[in-house]
Amino acid sequence: MNRKRTLRFVIPALSVAFLEACSGGSKATNSPDVQAAGKPSAAPVLSVPATVNVYEGLTATFLMPSATVGAGRSASWSMSGLDAARFQIDPATGALSFRQAPDTAKPADADAHNDYDIVVQVSDGQRSTQAPLKVQVLAWNDGGAAGLPLPLAAREVARPAGTTGQPGLRVLDWAGFKAAMSYTFDDSQPSQIDHYPELKAQRVRVTYYINPVANWYPNFDATWKDAVAQGSEIGNHTTHHCRAAELTDNDPNTCPQGLGSAGAEFDDTSDYIRTKIGQSGVWTSAYPFGDMDYKPAATSRFMVARGVWPGMVAPGTGSDLMNLPLAQVPGAATADGHPVSAFNTAVDTALGQGKWMIYLFHTLVPTTQNWGGAESIAAVTGNMAYAKSSGTMWIDSVVNIGAYWRGQQLLQAATPATLGGVTTWTWTLPPNFPSGRKLRVVVNGGTLTQNGTPLSWNARGYYEVSLDAQSLSWTQ
């Protein structure tokens, strides 16, 4: 009997919209027979999807195709086609990646449509098989400002059949990623505006905590409007950045322009963000100086608030919603801040612990407006690139990750009720919770429904649940 070896394919996270856009496998063609020891050889069996979707801005491996070759033979991979020069393929594993990060604004494929055509070929040294592959490049923010990114999907996951008679409902931590991270920038500083093009070029959603009193600087409103258009969040850092006690101490020397209360400072800034910047809502805040005297006012106005104490947030836990911690960067900073290696080490720590890390940045250098706490823009953008390259880190704004984290708590805390063979979970969204948010869940078989409509199983391994529905039902 002829024993065979199978090489499985792997599609790394953040690179591929996992076969969702596939139109079926490609039609493979074989080379003529080659005689070996007087017997015709069996051609390799090649499995390649017809189409694979890849996000722009990434050079990570996006596909490792599958091939079955005869016993005692090894697969050797190569490629050809109109756009083959834009890719590289590992001859031993078949791992495919872009040579340079694709950019949807500057398509480099032959017809300039952001769909690259190549032919994948595998040989066992005697015969070869090949199949066409179309690589469709998607905009990095394809899911919209509130869309969940695609998690790691090593292979297609079958819908659970279930035999226990119990739902076994479980929420995927961090939307299916290993960990999560948010970049936050405080004080709406001139250096952040000056370096905004470099931050924007990284194609990640971040949170800018602004003080409208700083709107004297050129391009203040224009920068934050563009950030919102790109999917980032504008958060509330109060209008005048005073300590809360200074707002009510009747001392004209401490905060002469202060609005009289913490609530008034928050409300004035939220109004500015809605009317001047055009963001539909304001869901998160950061305390000036980390001043916890702002907490009572924040609690009634925001979904979550960020403090300045050191730490990270575990998934689904009861960490203080109104005092989220900051990730610590190892080592002492120089005049130009920390090296990118220190930030990268912090990312590795978060991935190892499976937690949500939040960075805080103030001044970005080089700049002529150093307001303190300087960090190099090269180190910040270099760390963004490093975090993306892991393929297992969810990088997003505080409102997006915070809504998922908070939503997971709500569903996990819901007590299911069973009636007539239907198990139902209900929850109530808290005030100041953004609309249109989802959770990714799994169950031990059966059918999940919301508002009477069955949920579709995603081949990456989950159902997506609408938090707005505030109810989820399961039947065996």
Task: Give a structural overview.
With 476 residues, the chain is an alpha/beta fold. The protein folds into three domains: 4-138, Sandwich (Immunoglobulin-like); 174-401, Alpha-Beta Barrel (TIM Barrel); 410-475, no CATH class. Helices cover 18% and strands 27% of the residues. Strands 2, 3, 7, 9, 12 and 13 form a six-stranded mixed beta sheet that branches. A hairpin with a 2-residue loop joins strand 25 and strand 26 (422-426). Helix 6 (340-353) runs parallel beside helix 7. The protein is globular. Residues 1-24 and 33-38 have low confidence and may be disordered. It comes from Massilia pinisoli. Residues 87-151 form the Cadherin domain. Keywords: Signal.
Beta-strand content bin: 25-35%
* CATH class designation of the largest domain: Alpha Beta
Task: Estimate the mean pLDDT confidence.
Answer: 90
Distance between the termini: 43 Å
Radius of gyration from CA coordinates: 26 Å
DSSP strand count? 31
Which consecutive residue ranges, at least 5 long each, have pLDDT under 50? 1-24, 33-38
Q: What is the overall number of helices?
A: 8
Shape: globular
The CATH topology of the largest domain is TIM Barrel
By secondary-structure content and strand pairing, the structural class works out as alpha/beta
State the CATH superfamily name of the largest domain.
Answer: Glycoside hydrolase/deacetylase
Largest sheet: 6 strands, mixed
What is the second-level CATH architecture of the largest domain? Alpha-Beta Barrel
